[in-house]
Design a protein that fits this description.
Helix content is 54%, strand content 17%. It is of the alpha/beta class. It has a single domain (3-191), classed as 2-enoyl-CoA Hydratase, Chain A, domain 1. The strands form three sheets. A five-stranded parallel beta sheet has the order 1-3-6-8-11, sandwiched between helices. It has a four-stranded mixed beta sheet with strand order 4-7-9-10. It has a two-stranded parallel ribbon with strand order 2-5. α1 (18-33) packs parallel to α2. One of its GO terms (cellular component) is mitochondrial matrix. This is Enoyl-CoA delta isomerase 1, mitochondrial. It is an enzyme of class 5 (isomerase). Keywords: Acetylation, Fatty acid metabolism, Isomerase, Lipid metabolism, Mitochondrion, Transit peptide.
């Protein structure tokens, strides 16, 4: 059908580790280079979670070299997904904080399971960290400046109904109808001539993509400086402890 399905399966919560991000980028590149593939539906193979976002363990107590390699992989994933020539539909079938939200925001269309227990948002501020400018740009392009500003400052995680009301997701459907709906939306987008849709997408997204490309090394340096601070390391360690307690 010219449509690929990509399912995240990295238990327990699909965190975006260096290995996961690398594999994700390689898979996207393969699909991008496959002439027969015109669209990709991205979803999770794990119940209740789309992706929990960046893997905190990659940012805690590691070397400067490791931080640089990890951050480059995060950038690469976003540049490939946000700039993809394919139609990208996120079928968000669980909660999607922080980096998980970024993955969904980077797609062309977001459908979320109609479950108030599932939430989505860029909640970095809650962990004492700041969403980078290109996360922010992607968010602003979806929901507009005011909603993004409030949501980012508060580190809000929006339950599905609220996320829909804010325009953070395009549609809510019952969980069991999610894949059917994603396929229908994909068919609607693929009914258009590829070149016209691709050029329009490029026109809409180019400025934001170019901004990261131009400042990529600087952005890596900023990340390293920030994440290496003892105060940040401390709050990340506290967050990891809290997560461990939750599991028990």
């Amino acid at each position: 059908t010219g449509v690929a399905m990509m399912k995240f399966k990295s238990p327990p919560v699909n965190s975006l580790s260096l290995e996961f991000l690398t594999e994700f980028s390689i898979s996207l590149e393969k699909l991008e280079n496959d002439r027969a593939c015109r669209g990709v539906i991205i979803t999770s193979a794990l119940p209740k979670i789309f992706s929990s976002g960046l893997d905190i363990t990659e940012m805690c107590g590691k070397s400067v070299e490791h931080y640089a390699e990890f951050w480059r992989a995060v950038q690469e994933m976003w540049l490939r997904l946000y700039g993809s020539n394919m139609v990208t539909v996120a079928a968000v079938n669980g909660s999607s904080p922080a980096g998980g939200c970024l993955v969904a925001l980077s797609c062309d269309y977001r459908i979320m399971a109609e479950n108030p227990k599932f939430s989505i948002g860029l909640n970095e501020a809650q962990l004492g960290i700041v969403a980078p400018f290109w996360f922010k740009d992607t968010f602003v392009n979806v929901v507009g400046h005011r909603i993004a500003e409030r949501s980012l400052q508060l580190g809000s995680l929006h339950p599905a109904p609220e996320a829909h009301k804010l325009g953070l997701v395009d549609e809510l459907v019952p969980e069991e109808k999610l894949m059917e709906k994603a396929a229908a939306v994909m068919a609607q987008w693929l009914a258009l001539p590829d070149h016209a849709r691709q050029l329009t997408k490029t026109m809409m997204r180019k400025a934001v993509l170019d901004r990261l490309v131009a400042h990529r090394e600087e952005d890596i340096k900023n990340f390293i400086t920030f994440v290496s601070k003892e105060s940040i390391q401390k709050s990340l360690r506290m967050y990891m402890e809290m997560l461990k307690k939750k599991k028990h």
